[in-house]
Amino acid sequence: MSLRFRSSIAALALVLVLVGCDREQRQTRGKPLAETIPASASPDTVFPGDANLPKADPRAAAYEGNAAAISEGQRLYNWMNCSGCHFHGGGGMGVALMDDKWRYGGRIDQIVATIVEGRPNGMPSFRGRLTGQQVWQLAAYVRTLSGQERKDAVSARADEVSNTPPQTQTKREPLNPADSAEQ
Amino acid sequence: MRRGAAWLVLLLTGCNSYQNALGGDGAEGANFVQLFTVFMVVCTVMYLIVAAALVFALWRRRRTALVLDDRTHHQTSRVVRPALAAWTALIGTGLVVLTIASFFTDRTNAAQGSKPQIKITVTANQWWWDVQYRLPDVSRNVRTANEIHLPVGIPVKVTLKSNDVIHSFWIPNLAGKQDLIPGRQTDAQLLPRKVGLYRGQCAEFCGVQHAQMALDVMVESKEDFLRWYAGQLKPATAPANSLQLAGYRYFTTRECSTCHNIGGTPASGQVAPDLTHFASRRSIAAGTLPMARGNVYGWVADPQSQKPGNRMPTVGLSANDLHALVAYLETLK
Known about the structure:
Chain A is mostly helical. Chain A has one domain: Orthogonal Bundle (Cytochrome Bc1 Complex, Chain D, domain 2). Helix content of chain A is 39%, strand content 0%. Chain A has helices at 3-19, 32-35, 60-63, 67-79, 83-86, 108-117, 132-145, 178-182. In chain A, helix 4 crosses helix 7. The model of chain A is unreliable at 32-40 (pLDDT under 50). By secondary structure, chain B is α+β, with helices and mostly antiparallel strands. Chain B folds into two domains: 17-60 and 79-233, Cupredoxins -  blue copper proteins (Immunoglobulin-like); 242-331, Immunoglobulin-like (Sandwich), CATH 2.60.40. In chain B, 43% of the residues lie in helices and 18% in strands. Chain B has helices at residues 2-12, 27-59, 65-69, 73-112, 222-233, 242-253, 255-259, 293-301, 303-306, 319-331, and strands at residues 118-125, 128-134, 142-145, 147-151, 156-162, 167-169, 178-180, 186-190, 196-201, 214-220, 283-284, 289-290. In chain B, strands 3-2-1-5-8 form a five-stranded mixed β-sheet. Chain B has a three-stranded mixed β-sheet with strand order 4-10-9. A two-stranded antiparallel sheet of chain B has the order 6-7. In chain B, strand 11 and strand 12 form a beta hairpin. In chain B, helix 2 runs antiparallel to helix 4.
């Protein structure tokens, strides 16, 4: 094996290692002012059909595929008793979060709006109860329940007793609005 | 000379009275100091003997081939053999003494927990301590955080739990370490012998703010303890003026009450430190900051600048809300 070949292998390995650094970028403070969601500015999330989805919220990039945000969301999911109704994704009193039906949209900013605004038939509003950063972290975790996130960013271990495969092996469900899925 | 003095200063910074593993201010701590002294003496004596033998061997005249040939080496062995026998006997005795000393120290420490008069449950979280006093009458239970008050001379049983990762409960002056393991229950015994303020510290690396996970331990006279306990049993002080009322309203309806509990108010979150008697404590955020108005302002306004990575988010309070909240929190004596 030539020296050049060996050193290029080493350089490639180094690049691969550094790519991993992106996965867990941690912003302890968030951006409080920009992330506080004013009542009037929350996005309308009930889109007719799939045709004209508005552009994704630019804040999504900081939370999607971010292992630190997802694990914080996982902790908040239990702290805020989401599991009280949704259980650990399978649903109970509340809807299931691990299937392919998203009544109010499965994009991260739509989930954020659902948590902030609350939804009919039981989902309470967390406006003013959680900070914007916490809501985004929660939404990032909720997306992992149906396998929407990068597999290298999700947690391989569930905090609760679980009989489902770990999230690293969760199948990615399509993002169907509930109505179209039932047709 | 100056460098030597600097090293001495650096070494002595480890010696303070409130966090000192050789303080011996609790029964277990005192037993430990005794055992430590026995080990120190025995090991020092043995070390000196070995060192002396080594020096003697180096200093003694080297034997020549001629000496070996004239068959007189049995004369030296007359000295060496008894010396070796004595040395072996000494090692045997030393080891037996140390074994017996550790055995009895261990038994004495274990026996202390047999008749506890106070039971406390300490639950570790990243990065603070939840403290609950458990009485047979549950209506007289008390919950606080990051602070333990103990009456002097009364044996205490501490039940240890963890909500997230492995931590370790360590009040060096009073007793040894004990791990807190998630999903499991461990226990420790404390028997404080001397009134004073001590500092406990998490002794198992538990995440980014492990260093800022301290515990204030107040060992008091029995009367002082009972007075403190009676104070803790009361519900939180009601807001007395409009500013405090505004703070009360913000606390009980917004982000704060999602996680924090204040006894006697609608704020009933259970995942963060109980703040019912927040202002009566010695420090904020598990020993991170001393309790003072400026520090409360700094902490509430931006906890992530004081203890980055901790679980309390920076809310982004407006100045009015911040003033009101701090005014209310300061009344929670």
